[in-house]
Amino acid sequence: MKHLFHLLLWGTLMCCLSVQAADQTAELAASFEEKISRITQSVLPGNSTPSLPGVSLAQGITEVTGVAVSPLLGVSAIGAWKYWHASASERASLPWFCQPWAWGLGLAIAGLCFGKDVFGAALPGVLKKPFDWLELFEDKASALIASTAFVPLVALAMAEYQRIAAMDQAMVNLSSTGFAAVPMLAFAATVLQSPWVTVPLSLALFAVVWLTSHVAHVLIALSPFSLVDTLLKSAKAAVLALLLACAAMIPTVSPLPALVVCGMIALVCTLLAGWSFRLLVFGGQMVSDLLLRRKDSGSQLREKGIWGFLARPYQGLPVRKQVRIVWEPETSSFFFYYRPWLLLPERRVKLEEAPGAVLRGLLHPGLAWQVPDRGLRRACYLLPRYRGNEEKIAAHLGGLHVRDTGLIRGFKAMQQWLSDTLGNRPSREVASLG
Length: 434
What we know:
elongated, 16 helices, 8 strands, PH-domain like, 2 domains, eight-stranded mixed sheet, alpha+beta, 434 residues
């Protein structure tokens, strides 16, 4: 009887604990559902049951695509729009990017960048380029913030809308149009109800679109021509205007144009992802060396080799591939060391022929190969940190010659002309005659 009493007491205690745990779980779930509903209402506009099928999906995809094209401007504009269209009682519960301190600071920085592009066109490139280099890193920072603190909210809201639509039997309305009869569409509608699907897909869409969009900033930072800057900025503005026009048609006309345009943008950006990633690494390394004025003394050339980027394809390696040039005097051989996607194990490629010369450039040196019937052709860009160490690099690579690039030769010719024209030789001749 004593053991039976203890067993009954233990069972009663466990039941009480289970009921209490169940109540706490239900309370946490209700709180989580309330937070999700609040995020949904504030991130994506419209009611919980959109009048047209695919409205919430098209709105979310358009927002992610537009923010990927211009992260700072996109997040700030969306936050300001949602803040001004929310009631006074709802503004306190809006996400962080909808608060005035966030979108106000973002729009101010975007305005400074716009003023730099408009009024900086009249300035010499030497004065404007440092601001272009700063904007390059600003785009990286704003993309990092958007990918971690904005895109997941939009993806979460899309999944919640799909779940609400399924609970309200919105698919019954689709059956009359024939969409529900397609198994793939029904399966996609079910899959998109889970945040475990919408969040990774949204992040992947953001990543591929931002990679290609960021190429414009890299080219602007490296290009010496203001016309190229204007064309690239105009292209980005045209894409944003197209996405804004498609977004305006989503709740009233049809979500199909937005889905088609975003799908085409995503397809093109996916095909260019590898090229965009290599150009991103190339621009980041070059601009960081120039902006931070990094210098290499040349003492580590023999230990770590020389870092650079390919200027043309070589033995299966694509253009702008980051490589480490190593000279092995034991075998009298040159090697390219590289890491696929910068993360995989390091590989090496033996060069079939030795470099012909080290090129002295205005901003960065380079390596040239001897091409039959065409002379020396640049084959590798070296980092700006090696500027001024061309003789050390040439000696380290087996005693190569050092040649000036065409731009350096032009500057030297101009310097010689100015020295001959404005020098003090005429004054000495006049003094000797006197």
